[in-house]
Design goal:
The protein is an alpha+beta fold. The protein folds into two domains: 163 residues, CheC-like (Chemotaxis protein chec); 54 residues, Roll (Surface presentation of antigens (SPOA)), CATH 2.30.330.10. 26% of the residues lie in helices and 22% in strands. The protein has seven helices and eleven strands. Strands 1, 2, 3, 4, 5, 6 and 7 form a seven-stranded antiparallel beta sheet that branches. The chain has a four-stranded antiparallel beta sheet with strand order 8-9-10-11, with no helix packed on it. Strand 10 and strand 11 form a beta hairpin. It is flat.
Length: 303
């Protein structure tokens, strides 16, 4: 039998692990308290709702946060002031990513404790309440103390389907109905009945007749009909170089910041069509606009 209290406590500890890693401060998760939610889950300005999905269990737990709590966590991540009344587009993006990371870690911990696979577990911020499971919910509340500055409240909601899969009944299953006993006479016990063998019907082999077929017309004979796809739009990207930065480095970028790419100034740039590398070339200027002069077609990735 799965102990729902232990499962939710483990999920809160997983949330604390993520928060501690994000803000680099000690954390402590409280025990979960049950507070069932009968109505539908509402999404408003003060609440952040993340919907997780665990394919191996076939359930979609919901994790709710207070907007102010996560905003304070983001400010701690950025090393800014406590006033989080106004957040820019980058901060809002970090809020969404933070909520998704926490909910995904909680869902993975739930799957592990249920002995299920964690492949395909994901979570994302939900902005449409119609995408959430239907009520009623078994809800569990807890807090995660982050350093001395923040203690975000986290609410975990399980719908009826999820609860039926997480908590199993201890009562023994009803015994399957057994067929009535067969009365065996003394004669049948001594002389078992012999079933008559089915008669064997001699079948005559018949030769297989195949329908005559003609060779398929070749592509050259049939015509390629490329005119049908000539107007399909393709996205072409010229990639000067790439690099990897941590979240902390990204959020500190500002006007005038410089970061190094993985290519030398003399290296050719990569030309992608629909994210497929098709050529390499050099940057030139044509009529005051940047252009690419192709120097190599169909290059290998290693070259």
């Amino acid at each position: 039998m799965a102990d729902i209290q232990q499962l939710t406590d483990a999920m809160l500890e997983a949330a604390g692990t993520v928060l501690g890693r994000l803000v680099e401060q000690p954390v402590a998760a409280s025990a979960a308290m049950r507070n069932d939610h009968e109505g539908s889950i509402k999404i408003d300005a003060g609440t952040l709702v993340a919907c997780a999905e665990i394919p191996s269990l076939g359930i979609k737990p919901v994790v709710r946060f207070q907007n102010d709590d996560i905003a304070k966590i983001v400010q701690m991540m950025l090393g800014g002031a406590d006033d989080a009344a106004e957040m820019g587009a980058m901060q809002l993006s970090i809020v969404s990513e933070t909520v998704s990371q926490i909910a995904a870690a909680m869902a993975e911990e739930l799957a592990k404790n249920m002995g299920a696979a964690t492949e395909g577990v994901r979570a994302e911020l939900c902005t449409d309440a119609t995408n959430l499971p239907a009520p009623p919910f078994a809800s569990f509340e807890g807090t995660v103390q982050v350093g001395v500055e923040a203690a975000p409240q986290i609410i975990i909601d399980f719908d009826g389907i999820a609860m039926s899969k997480l908590v199993h009944d201890d009562t023994p299953e009803a015994a399957e109905p057994q067929p009535p006993p067969v009365m065996v006479s003394a004669r049948s016990a001594v002389e078992p009945a012999v079933e008559p063998r089915p008669s064997v019907v001699e079948a005559k082999a018949q030769p297989v007749a195949f329908t005559p077929m003609s060779p398929t017309q070749s592509r050259a004979q049939a015509g390629n009909n490329l005119d049908l796809v000539h107007d399909v739009p393709l996205q072409i990207s010229a990639v000067l170089g790439k690099t990897a930065l941590t979240l902390r480095d990204v959020v500190t970028l500002q006007s005038g910041s410089v970061f190094e790419l993985d290519k030398l100034s003399t290296d050719p740039i990569d030309l992608y069509v629909n994210n497929i590398l098709i050529a390499r070339g050099e940057v030139v200027v044509v009529d005051d606009k940047f252009a690419v002069k192709i120097s190599e077609l169909n290059p290998t990735v290693e070259s």
